[in-house]
């Protein structure tokens, strides 16, 4: 078998036309290279972002010289493969133009056998400024297209928003949580591939029908051959093997092999079973010798998006292996503005954090990138389902032939690359475009249409339909038949009439509910606006003090300092946080306290939403908050900050997403309703212990309810009025503790207060911490208090998380937590915490 791959990763770069070459890192981007070479300051520090906008107006040049290893050069076929070029790239090999690339999301493959020499070869790539490249396209169109998050002013372009013309990550141009860094670079691997005779370039395991008793599959292979011959194809996996004789022809061959696996081990999302993965190996044999081979890893499962009319409207949920799955998770954005700095370890840390928080789904949101293979591989392994957007968000796009052709290639490249991943359960055309434009509602949407004549509106909408109603679904049905496609998120239905548009309150499709936050509606409305699938809703907070100090000096620690404002990209963000804080929480005593309080506020908001959605199961079958992570250090809706530190939200989410949990609905202030949420596939006998405790620790009353929680369900199990429960006790100084128990083990716990957090009468608690550091570097902490302590926050010197955090500590009820160190490989496991500080809300307010 003769197939050799050889990566080209020794590069230099310079501004095009300038003298001096400097070392570059490939894959990488020009901003990272400039920073590494000391040419620019840290782009994420202070207000540096504002001074670095010149970079995207220049052309950049990357170069490598190399001698091709003899055995590679001797192959009959040699190609140069680019997994990703960002974005307008002219490629020259030994002085000859071999490629002009124009889409960051495509892969490029050029035959170069005849261009290579035995001695030194020179590969040069000029990356033309994406700004200068696209300004003329805007001129030619004659009117601008909506691009809600393109921060063109910051980029020095006034209102000229050019992002929509480039097939390049939308968030590079800025977002309401992200900086504007319009990168250029060789952002994915470059390599030479040589082969002689025959090779298998692609192996797709198409899942035609999968059940617990049998998986009917088709292996689809692409085979390149430089001659005709008769071969034997052998396909194997885990003690299974099939063989078939195939006539291979000169050129490209598509070979299909249908087969069945009995009693397959299925792939399940986290919480429902093992995420079992099979590695299929295809080998092409001539006689006994293997001429070519290729492996593909996948998980066997059946996936359906169930949209069926019912009494209330129409369902919207993922059915996995016949089981309706309640989706729990968050929206994922790229982990960095300089995406190529994200290591596999950072991806692992994100996915481990998702699994640790009891999530089973992440949405790869359409303003970022089609993620790296590592991301999907980890989702496959950890049982995290992926809702995959195509990379279009909050904008209208041009529809000229070149653009459409580019999008078609992009879609096909990515569907082909990703289609074996069992984790991808849904492909979605775009983020929020259908609802923002609202073609059939004259005054609907985000008010975009009023800037255009009726003729222009029709053109813009026709261009939209060409991409999202035809081109993208065609790519799916051609390359991943059977995979589910949803044109836009949010959306009501696939029809083209006015009923299609999602708004809070619709009883079909998915919903982005932003009444809380963007519209200043109260948290209580999370109980009111519940759709069939809540694919977005969110609330901002600040990173913790330690994180803020990584991008701002001490003297900038005020909300309205230039630096803090530069790291708050949502114009009304700080105002909204303050407004809601005034309503729901006591006043923080200083800036550092404000940071903490903003996290508590966000966590409380998201808890209300998540639990309201779960309680509404099976009407509602999914809850994905906005947003999982950050791409740089910033105030944002994220639950994990840029440095990987879990905010209060992530700990709250972990509790609210527990597969078996208790939830208290006390929104109307009078009735308290207790719900048991069971996402597992078996019924559970549990008991619910309700204890009324004074802030000083005296237990006023206690009752235990023995219950049966049926499988995969949510049920109200008990109601009582607050007055009845409280009796004579003082509402300002009494807490209700609800514990869900099984076999003497506490599975879940919630606290409920009878007045708002502003009205409760906190006193300064004396929290005693007993710490054990065992010989194996494990740090465990038992916390006890003499007075109620709210949102107890442990912070460690070492990087890592605690098994619980931001919890309420009730006198007489000690809590034990363990520190989980963040390992270099991205996993979390027991480790030494270093010095640990314990605080609670009382430390951050004037008592
Ligand atoms: C949603 C997202 C993002 C945005 C977020 C917060 O609309 O799709 O575009 O960052 O809200 O405004």
From TrEMBL:
Keyword Repeat: no
Pfam families listed in its UniProt record: Glyco_hydro_2 (PF00703), Glyco_hydro_2_C (PF02836), Glyco_hydro_2_N2 (PF22666), Ig_mannosidase (PF17753), Mannosidase_ig (PF17786)
Record InterPro entries: Beta-gal/glucu_dom_sf, Beta-mannosidase-like_N2, Beta-mannosidase_GH2, Beta-mannosidase_Ig, Galactose-bd-like_sf, GH, Glyco_hydro_2_cat, Ig-like_fold
GO cellular component, one term: extracellular region
Pathway entry: Glycan metabolism; N-glycan degradation
Domain Glycoside hydrolase family 2 immunoglobulin-like beta-sandwich: 198-301
Reaction catalysed by this enzyme: Hydrolysis of terminal, non-reducing beta-D-mannose residues in beta-D-mannosides
Primary role: Exoglycosidase that cleaves the single beta-linked mannose residue from the non-reducing end of all N-linked glycoprotein oligosaccharides.
Record family assignment: Belongs to the glycosyl hydrolase 2 family. Beta-mannosidase B subfamily.
Name of protein: Beta-mannosidase
Lineage of origin: Bacteria, Bacillati, Bacillota, Bacilli, Bacillales
